[in-house]
Amino acid sequence: MLDSYELTVHTLTLRQLGTAEQLADINGLALAEVEAALAKALTDSAVMAARGSHMITPAGREFLDGVYARAYAALRADGAVTEAMESFETGVNKQILALTTDWQTVEVDGARVTNDHGDADYDAKIIEKLGRVHEKTAKVLRPLAAADALVERFLDRIGTALTRAEGGETDYVSGVRVDSVHTVWFQMHEHILRLTGRERPE
Predict the structure, then answer these.
(1) How far apart are the C-alpha atoms of 60 and 48, rounded to whole Å?
(2) 3-state secondary structure 60-104
(3) SS3 letters across 27-43
């Protein structure tokens, strides 16, 4: 497990630029803890700040490389975790990417064009499929969620985004200005890659 300082710096690898409030929303720490960690990280030159937002520095990334190796050594040696990551990369992650493409585009006369979201039934089917993949993902990532509470938090946040999308707030499927399914999935993927020491697939 990471302490509040390590976790705050780590969160800036998941969201490239963020305020203390935005980082706390991701990692679940109290805002005061995140603010204290950021103040220390600034002193340590692990992060830089501008206009109230923060981003990680090369020194911060180097610091985290050492942290991960220590904090996640047992997790990285766990065969169940390795198997779960293989299932994630070859299964549910590819399904989410395909469904995101299907959400953003539709096929017309054999060509892909931008989805204008005028077909409510088409959109509803995509959201339903996303829900099924989310349920499957919770099962696939169970070994990681058992070892790291933040994985469960990401899954809960994806569930919240799906609920809002089902209620008609369709920006919560792939919008970049909200905590959409796509946005939170990207953060979760980056998080579990860093836990397990793997590279993001091309």
Answers:
(1) 10
(2) HHHHHHHHHHHHCHHHHCCHHHHHHHHHHHHHHHHHHHHHHHHHH
(3) HCCCHHHHHHHHHHHHH
- Residue 31: pLDDT above 70? yes
Instruction: Give helix then strand counts, H and E, for the chain.
Output: 12, 4
Supply the CATH number for residue 19's domain: 1.10.10.10
Phi, psi of 73 (to 5 degrees): -60, -45
Pair (58, 92) in one structural domain: no
Which residue from 131, 148, 142 is spatially nearest to 85, judged by alpha carbons?
A: 142
Two tokens at 78?
């766990």
Spatial separation of the C-alpha atoms in residues 96 and 133, rounded to whole Å: 7
Per the structure, the complete domain to which residue 61 belongs is given by 4-71
Determine, yes or no, domain membership for 202.
no
How far are the Cα atoms of 33, 70, 71, 181, 197 from residue 58, in angstroms, in the given order?
Answer: 23, 19, 20, 29, 18
Longest dimension (CA), the chain: 58
Query: What's the structural domain count of the chain?
Result: 2
The pLDDT tens digits of the residues spanning 127-161 come to: 999 999 999 999 999 999 999 999 999 999 999 99
Confirm if 47 and 57 have CB atoms less than 8 A apart. Answer: yes
Hey, what are 121's tokens?
A: 């039934």
